[in-house]
Write a structure and sequence with these properties.
Elements (H helix, E strand, L loop, with lengths): L18 H14 L7 H5 L5 H12 L10 H14 L3 H6 L6 H18 L18 E2 L17 E4 L5 H12 L7 H6 L5 H8 L8 H16 L5 E4 L6 H7 L5 H11 L6 H7 L4 H6 L20
Antiparallel strand pairs: 1-2, 2-3
The protein binds a DNA duplex through helix 3, helix 6 and helix 8.
DNA sequence: AACGAATCCAACCGCGCATGG
DNA sequence: GCCATGCGCGGTTGGATTCGT
């Protein structure tokens, strides 16, 4: 039952890394490159599990890491991206060169949360703390800095038992603007550590389901959920743009103006305005760690494709 | 100076996804 | 289609450090 352990724990070191271990790991990766983390420790002569090596490299040893305090610009960017993406630290990290998901996550929990609260903004919803948009009560435990409670759920469950019909319809409307992770293609293509798939699936129409298929899929999901959602909506906050994307994948430049105006209508995610007006495709904004823009996204009229 | 509280952050853990046999 | 495996992600932990009294 269950998966086999990632390594033989009895023979691995744990805890803080020594300088010697760091050097061994750096030397090995310098020669052989990243990857094959499972076999790396043995090959490099390290008594660590592969996961541990990977983490140490990604979060601490990578040469392109930027150390030191976050700038105000980085601060604001993190807040904006979090309002868009939620706790997708790796995606957010993809937009902050030299920063790791772990670093951003820690920074968020220790600094940014507090900053937002002091501004009267709910760090989870990015709405004013005293705003009552619905009578819904979230079951996510409100965590204060450094006092994270063990909530294994990655899904925000909302209880709508006491919600008014108007609130429920508002929520449904919002929900219809949100992709409930219904498109696996989109999800996997969002992985910043797989830029090739970003380009293949996001930046070209090939390899994607058609708009019609996506609508049907979405519709079926809606039907399945509809009998339950008055009481409890499973509001998966991970990615919020697939339906928008399907509308906005422009096939001609004439569609771009429509696309832009539609994007700007997505009121709950006003941050999109900024993404759009910056004139950079979301695939490059969010997905790719490469500094240059993906060529498939560029259009002759100066716009980029949005997803 | 001493002590407890608060904070920071590197590292660990467990789960989900992708992939290949 | 099923299963095993590897990797990556997000949540959490706990030791180290800083702060306040």
């Amino acid at each position: 039952m269950g998966r086999s352990p990632c390594c033989e724990k009895a023979h691995t070191n744990k805890g803080a890394w020594t300088k010697e271990e760091d050097e061994r790991l750096i030397d090995y990766i310098r020669v052989h490159g990243e990857g094959c983390w499972r076999s790396l420790p043995k090959a490099a002569g390290l008594l660590r599990c592969g996961k541990s090596c990977r983490l140490r490299w990604i979060n601490y040893l990578r040469p392109d890491l930027k150390r030191g305090n976050f700038t105000d610009e980085e601060d604001e960017l993190i807040i904006k991206l979090h309002s868009l993406l939620g706790n997708k630290w790796s995606v957010i990290a993809g937009r902050l060169p030299g920063r790791t998901d772990n670093e951003i996550k820690n920074y968020w929990n220790t600094h940014v949360k507090r900053k937002l609260i002091s501004r009267g903004i709910d760090p989870q919803t990015h709405r004013p703390l005293n705003e009552k948009t619905t009578t819904a009560t979230t079951t996510t435990t409100g965590t204060t800095t450094g006092a994270a409670k063990p909530t294994a759920n990655r899904v925000t469950q909302l209880n709508f038992e006491n919600a008014s019909p108007q609130s429920i319809s508002e929520i449904k409307l919002l929900k219809s603007n949100i992709d409930f992770k219904c498109s696996k293609n989109f999800n996997s293509s969002f992985n910043p550590r797989k830029p090739e798939s970003v380009e293949e699936t996001n930046c070209s129409s090939s390899g994607m389901t058609t708009d019609e298929e996506q609508h049907q899929h979405h519709h079926h999901q809606e039907e399945r959920k509809s009998s339950h959602e008055n009481k409890e909506i499973n509001l998966e906050l991970t990615i919020g743009l697939a339906p928008i994307r399907s509308e906005l994948t422009p096939t001609s430049s004439s569609n771009l103006a429509d696309a832009e105006s539609k994007l700007q209508q997505q009121a709950p995610y006003q941050i999109l305005e900024k993404v759009v007006t910056r004139g950079v495709c979301t695939c490059c904004q969010l997905g790719s760690q490469r500094s240059e823009l993906c060529s498939n996204c560029q259009n002759s009229n100066g716009f980029y494709r949005y997803y």
